Amino acid sequence: MAINPHYHHTEEQLQEELLWIEAAKENPEHFAPLYNKYYKGIFSYVYQRLDSKDTAFDITAQVFLKALSNIQKYEFKGVPFASWLYRIAYNEVMQLFKSNQQLRAVNADVSDLRFICESHEEPFFEEYIPLVQKLISQLEEQDLQLVEMRYFEKRPFKEVAEILNITEVNAKVKMHRVIEKLKKELKKIKL
């Protein structure tokens, strides 16, 4: 699976970002470059999981407010600052789902679903789309987050692990188990 270059940073980019972070720690007005760089991505991440654009705007605003309020607690771990923002966004979305499960949505296009099947040697047929969508929407929340981040957003496992606050090996093992579970359920339905 190709890694999405949007989420991959060079060492130089990470160092530039670290300078922005240190500046924001000194003066909150210097948070703007981080906000400008990541707002669209965080909004997309949140909106992909909801059916309400207004709610997605509200959650995204909360994410950046919490990030700015807690910037002093941020510790550089060799991954983009976005990972910390996505972890905040993940927590905000999970909090919202705890209070209202009906807001949860899975927004994926056909090519995303095809990729799940093809990457695991399962032939893909157009008639499987509704089945795969249904199976994905029935996943437990953390499993769904793994699928969305790894396959729909094409994030590297290192970043997925950072966002979910688990080890990279754990992220890989969990992803393998989710895919095996989906394949097993798909085979049951196809029979």
In short:
It contains 9 helices and no strands. It has 191 residues and is mainly α.
Mean of pLDDT: 80
CATH superfamily of the largest domain: RNA polymerase sigma factor, region 2, helix turn helix motif
- Structural class, by secondary structure, is mainly alpha
Low-confidence stretches: 1-7
Counted by DSSP, the helix tally is 9
H and E order:
HHHHHHHHH
Describe the structure.
The protein is mainly alpha-helical. It folds into two domains: 11-103, RNA polymerase sigma factor, region 2, helix turn helix motif (Rna Polymerase Sigma Factor, Chain: A, Orthogonal Bundle), CATH 1.10.1740; 110-190, Winged helix-like DNA-binding domain superfamily/Winged helix DNA-binding domain (Arc Repressor Mutant, subunit A, Orthogonal Bundle), CATH 1.10.10.10. Helices cover 68% and strands 0% of the residues. The protein is built from nine helices and no strands. It has helices spanning 11-26, 32-48, 53-69, 81-99, 110-118, 129-137, 141-152, 157-164, 168-190. Helix 4 (81-99) crosses helix 8 (157-164) and helix 7 (141-152) packs across helix 9. 25% of the residues are buried. The model is unreliable at 1-7 (pLDDT under 50).
